[in-house]
């Protein structure tokens, strides 16, 4: 995989930071108020996650639908938000990542790789990331509206990237790891 981490086989890694990112969506449930005051319904929302292979820097967004249009919007979002160019993107073979999505990725000059079917271990960083989200964010909070969940998820993204240390990064945050990689470039 192409990455900004030194020694990871990236061409000219020291000259220009770049990333290999894993992309995944997951289904979540959030509470939304129904028109009746006495009952609450569960509305499904979908969390899209992109995680940099080297720094573990993440971008998290919520969508109301699991659809190629959501995936394309998220692709635009990650190319805008990540502070480095993306060289390679890895996804599962979910219906939200069809051939149309693959073409959009390649039009941006990004290589794409599908993981093998029924092999979530090939997307381990994202799977672990989702477990952390389930334990430390979704399991501790409930939201009445989509907007509230979306705002809280953005705050959680900030905490994960800039406050919460990671043992995989030797006690550093993803933002600290990114600063180290950029300083070495």
Describe this structure in words.
36% of the residues lie in helices and 24% in strands. With 185 residues, it is α/β, with parallel strands linked by helices. It has a single domain (19-33, 41-184), classed as Ribonuclease H-like superfamily/Ribonuclease H (Nucleotidyltransferase, domain 5, 2-Layer Sandwich). Helix 1 (68-81) runs parallel beside helix 2. Mean pLDDT is 80; it is low at 6-17 and 27-39.
Question: Radius of gyration in whole Å, from Cα?
Answer: 17 Å
Per CATH, the class reads: Alpha Beta
Largest beta sheet: what is the strand line-up?
3-2-1-4-5
Q: What number of domains?
A: 1
CATH domain topology: Nucleotidyltransferase, domain 5
Strand content bin:
15-25%
Task: Please tell me the overall pLDDT.
Answer: 80
Instruction: Indicate the low-confidence ranges by residue numbers.
Output: 6-17, 27-39
Biggest sheet overview:
5 strands, mixed
Q: Which architecture name does CATH use?
A: 2-Layer Sandwich
Tell me the total number of β-strands. 5
Helix percent reads 25-40%
Number of helices: 5
* Morphology call: globular
Helical/strand content category: alpha/beta
> For the terminal residues, how far apart are their CA atoms?
18 Å
> H/E series, N to C?
EEEHEHEHHH
Task: Tell me the name of the CATH homologous superfamily.
Answer: Ribonuclease H-like superfamily/Ribonuclease H
């Amino acid at each position: 995989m192409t990455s900004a981490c030194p020694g990871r086989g990236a061409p000219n890694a020291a000259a220009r930071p770049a990333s290999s990112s894993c992309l995944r969506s997951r289904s979540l449930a959030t509470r939304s108020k129904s028109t009746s005051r006495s009952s609450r319904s569960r509305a499904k929302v979908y969390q899209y996650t992109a995680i940099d292979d080297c720094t573990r820097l993440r971008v998290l967004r919520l969508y109301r639908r699991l659809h190629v249009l959501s995936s394309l919007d998220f692709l635009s979002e990650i190319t805008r938000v990540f502070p480095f160019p993306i060289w390679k993107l890895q996804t599962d073979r979910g219906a939200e990542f069809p051939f149309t999505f693959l073409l959009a990725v390649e039009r941006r000059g990004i290589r794409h790789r599908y993981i093998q079917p029924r092999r979530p271990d090939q997307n381990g960083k994202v799977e672990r990331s989702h477990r952390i989200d389930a334990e430390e964010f979704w399991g501790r909070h409930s939201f009445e509206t989509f907007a509230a969940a979306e705002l809280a998820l953005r705050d959680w993204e900030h905490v994960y990237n800039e406050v919460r240390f990671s043992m995989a990064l030797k006690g550093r945050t993803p933002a600290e790891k990114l600063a180290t990689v950029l300083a070495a470039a």
